[in-house]
Design brief:
It is a single chain. This protein is of the alpha/beta class. Helix content is 51%, strand content 17%. The chain has an 8-stranded mixed sheet, with helices on both faces. α10 runs antiparallel to α11. The chain is elongated. The two termini are 21 Å apart. Bound molecules: uridine-5'-diphosphate and magnesium ion. Magnesium ion binds next to loops. Uridine-5'-diphosphate binds next to β1 and α4.
């Protein structure tokens, strides 16, 4: 058997992907020859994120045929971010690549990605230039989210960026070294830095099964992203406080002067109610913002494992 100089770990988070996994494997193996010629061996790491279908059995069947197939199976669904981390931790490769099981990350791009690594880039990232086949309302909110993130976070988070990434060992280790519980990969990749090449491609629809992201799930995920990579909401809360103090002070002087000149007829009940309820509302809003950060802090402090493994090989 041939021994190779280098190893490429292909990490695939899978949640209910029994139909996609064999298709993914077949499609990716088409690229094997190219890497074989470059003296690079493949290693597949399928991370089963608590699937309820036969994903684990399907991966085991692949293993029967191919020794290079590995599995990490979670005790329950921990989310894609945890699956990515588990895959990166298990990977032994000199290079790693993160790919979705549904073939939305075309394996045909792998040689080009490696080409950039050979040129000296540390990581090759991808972004899709369009959002074909996605509900317009989802695209609209996605765009707003990235626009907002650009304004309020110092970490670069690119619109349309996918998790499809080719990385050197150095970058992989850097990502693993980030031990936070609330993981937002798009931010983590930007935060670690290194020389990154961006490749663009047109959106591809998934081959089988359906997306795991509901609108609501995406909305909550975007809040996670904002809180993990920006403290701007806290600053805005403080600004509200300052603003209201200034307004109150000016108002106080105004009332004082008016009372000196015109006396103090009891009136203005409606305006008082309006002001009190407005300020009350803003207070609760700010308290809520603080509470959100605190709840994240709470989870970080508890330092629970990011995933639990039921089975692996
Ligand atoms: N995935 C996962 N855990 C989850 C949800 C998704 O591991 O809780 C995997 C899923 O199997 C797929 C990838 O993450 O390989 C992307 O998911 P999906 O295609 O549903 O997302 P989309 O491409 O629609 O953003
Ligand atoms: Mg997908």
């Amino acid at each position: 058997m041939k021994t190779y100089e280098k190893l490429l770990s292909i990490i695939v988070p899978c949640y209910n992907e029994e139909e996609s996994v064999p298709l993914f494997y077949a499609e990716t193996m088409k690229q094997e020859q190219y890497f074989h010629d470059k003296n690079i061996e493949f290693e597949f790491i399928f991370v089963d994120d608590g699937s309820k279908d036969a994903t684990v059995a399907v991966v085991k069947a692949l293993r029967e045929k191919d020794e290079r197939v590995h599995l990490v199976s979670f005790s329950r669904n921990f989310g894609k971010e945890a699956a990515i981390l588990a895959g990166l931790e298990k990977a032994k490769g000199d290079y790693t690549v993160l790919m979705d099981a549904d073939l939305q990350d075309p394996p045909a791009l792998l040689p080009e990605m490696y080409g950039y690594i050979e040129e000296g880039y540390d990581s090759v990232a991808t972004r899709r230039v369009d959002r074909k086949g996605e509900p317009p309302i989802r695209s609209f909110f996605a765009r707003r989210f990235y626009g907002l993130m650009r304004k309020i976070s110092k970490t670069e988070i690119v619109d349309g960026a996918r998790d499809y990434r080719f990385m050197t060992r150095q970058v992989t280790d850097a990502i693993i070294s980030m031990r936070e519980y609330n993981r937002f990969s798009k931010g983590i990749f930007g935060w670690v830095g290194y020389k990154t090449k961006w490749m663009e491609y047109e959106n591809v629809q998934r081959v089988a099964g359906e997306t795991k992201w509901s609108f609501w799930k995406l909305f909550l995920y975007s809040l996670d992203g904002i809180m993990a990579f920006s403290t701007m909401p806290l600053a805005i809360a403080s600004l509200f406080g300052i603003l209201f103090c200034v307004v109150a002070f000016v108002f106080m002087i105004f009332i004082f002067v008016r009372a000196m000149i015109y006396g103090d007829p009891v009136a203005g009940w409606p305006s008082t109610v309006c002001i009190i309820s407005l300020i009350g509302g803003v207070q609760f809003l700010c308290l809520g913002v603080m509470g959100q950060y605190m709840s994240k802090l709470y989870l970080e402090v508890k330092d629970r494992p990011k995933y639990l493994v039921k089975e692996e090989f």
